[in-house]
Amino acid sequence: MDKGIFQAYEDEIQALEEEIRLLTEQYEEMRQESTFFSDEEILKSIKSLQRETQGETKGHESPSDLKAQLESLETDLSFLMEFTGFNFTSHSKKTVEKTQNRTVQKHRLSGKCHSLSFQLEFQLLEMQNNEKVSAVVSDLSIIMESREDSNVSKFVSRTEERGDLLTFFRSLATYAEWYEHRRRTFLHFK
């Protein structure tokens, strides 16, 4: 047989093995997250859901009120996206560890700010002491489309070291806005 055919089969086998590995990881993550809840908590959630679906709970708004509230929230979100320039396209959250007063979650976030794409991956440690909740960002990883500018690369590196998401979003909004102005100006002269 031809070596090309063998190579095609090998490539297909490798792709299938990778898909099996990814699906196994997803299954393990889902199984792990479900073990964080006790049987009692699961039963409470099931009973609560049953009451809601049967209409036994009181104080819930009518479907038309909920629809109006949803439309209002969508309008607010649209305004905020237009105002800030941020458009988040995906977000995933995985609980890594959960105890009574400590939770560690891994977040993945991607989106665009004006015309610049970005992806973030970080861990969020939330600790609760008495009535106070504190959150710490760690293992911040930022991937940006426009890294050819050395100043942006330096900024991203510093932000990753410090784990300062607020500064990242503020600076990205300003940079992306001016990046868009520069891009339009250069297009005008071409």
From TrEMBL:
It comes from the Eukaryota. GO terms for cellular component: chromosome, centromeric region; nucleus. One of its GO terms (biological process) is CENP-A containing chromatin assembly. Keywords: Coiled coil. InterPro entries: CENP-P. Residues 6-33 form a coiled coil. Signal peptide: none annotated. It holds the Pfam family CENP-P. PANTHER family: CENTROMERE PROTEIN P. This is CENPP protein. It comes from Urocynchramus pylzowi. The gene is Cenpp.
